[in-house]
Specification:
single chain, about 375 residues, alpha+beta, Immunoglobulin-like, seven-stranded antiparallel sheet, four-stranded mixed sheet, 11 helices, 11 strands, disordered N terminus
């Protein structure tokens, strides 16, 4: 099953990959049925690296190894891997869905392939590059993510010992997210918790990740997902610094993403206590402004609720719509639960209140709570 280079439009990429996986499954040796589960996963990964599409085989093999290999290689996980590979053969859509299930997105790979082909040169010196970078703004439901494809498009393998995330600038974010969660989920790849008091984060060290080797001509390209949270309500301007060493000559170099002089990556973390407690009253920036925004929101709630007659369902429905329009949601598009929101935001509001406003703030919360139905905290 020796790979051959193929054209790289989306249709051809998917078709050639599906054909290779079908051929791979047909030709896997019968002896693997009696092999250890770790061995099975390793053999599959070795074959996936030979997919005749630049970058995709390497990225897919690493994703499979991470999700199914090593200690995770159980009977159930190997069966799940087999089901995933079988499904990839069914249709182009199924192929893409299965890629996305292990966090590989075809448009990112296509962009990286295009950039790699443009840079590919027959030379001996390395050319380590960030070929694709996509900010994925998930906060506060999940951490904000920065997804990059890192590849060496030149000759000679390089080793990357560390990836540095540098905060070049920050400013307070005085917006407040008043939504409430249903059940947030997270996936961990490379993770860092930002603070305005720290300007550099060693991502490999923070996540106990070993140095990575990137082979020549795109061999060993890797999709890296950087998940970021913050203990401050701030908007950060970020840059990646990636030192490397040429394994053949020992020469060292550094790449930056974005390149020096280009616009930095900007990620914002508004105050969202309904979703997480990363930002505490002690770490809030511009606490006076945050209090003022909360007060405006609570007075808006009060003005809506005071006109509601509990016995009149039409008025209750109208109030719900007004509350929803005011930005009070559970985060999944349902009507707001004011009682739950008060349990989260009320104590914070009182803690942030200036000493000469504390009695007034407490009365406002009590007045809102008094308007809620006795048995049901939501309308």
């Amino acid at each position: 099953m020796s790979p051959e280079m193929q054209p790289h439009d989306d249709t051809t990429l998917i078709s050639s990959s599906r054909q290779y996986i079908a051929s791979m499954l047909d030709k896997l040796p019968e002896s693997l049925k009696d092999a250890g589960r770790e061995t099975v996963v390793q053999v599959v990964c070795d074959e996936l690296r030979r997919i005749p599409v630049p970058l995709l085989g390497s990225i897919l093999a690493k994703a499979v190894e991470k999700q199914f290999g090593g200690e995770k290689a159980t009977d159930d996980s190997v069966y799940e891997l087999g089901e995933m590979l079988q499904s990839m053969q069914e249709s182009d859509d199924a192929f893409q869905r299965q890629l996305e299930s292990i966090n590989i997105f075809l448009p990112e790979v296509m962009e990286a392939i295009t950039q790699q082909e443009q840079r590919m040169e027959e030379r001996d010196t390395p050319d380590l590059r960030v070929l694709s970078a996509k900010p994925d703004l998930k906060y506060p439901v999940n951490d904000n993510e920065l997804r990059i494809i890192l590849s060496n498009t030149g000759g000679s393998s390089v080793m990357v010992d560390e990836i540095f995330l540098e905060v070049k600038d920050w400013e307070p974010d005085t917006n407040i997210d008043f939504s409430m969660p249903a059940a947030p989920m997270q996936m961990l790849f490379l993770k860092a918790e930002l603070s305005v008091e720290k300007s550099e984060y060693t991502l490999f060290s923070l996540n106990d990740t070993q140095p990575r080797i990137f082979g020549e001509r795109g061999d060993g390209a890797e999709l890296i997902v950087i998940q970021l949270s913050s203990i401050n309500n701030a908007k950060y301007s970020l840059q990646l610094r990636i030192p490397y060493q040429d394994l053949s000559t020992g020469n060292k170099g550094i790449i930056y993403y974005p390149d020096t002089g280009e616009n930095l990556i900007e990620l914002s973390f508004p105050y969202s206590p309904g979703w997480n407690q990363d930002i505490t009253p002690e770490s809030i920036l511009e606490g006076t402004k945050i209090f003022s925004q909360m007060e405006l929101k609570f007075r808006k709630i009060y003005s809506i609720l005071k006109d509601v007659y509990r016995s009149d369902e039409k008025n209750i429905e109208t109030a719900n719509e007004k509350l929803f329009a005011a930005g009070l949601t559970t985060g999944i598009g349902t009507f707001p639960d004011i009682g739950s929101m008060l349990l989260v935001f009320g104590p914070i509001f009182l803690e942030l209140a200036p000493s000469d406003r504390s009695i007034e703030a407490e009365k406002l919360i009590q007045d809102i709570r008094a308007m809620l139905p006795e048995k049901s905290q939501s309308f």
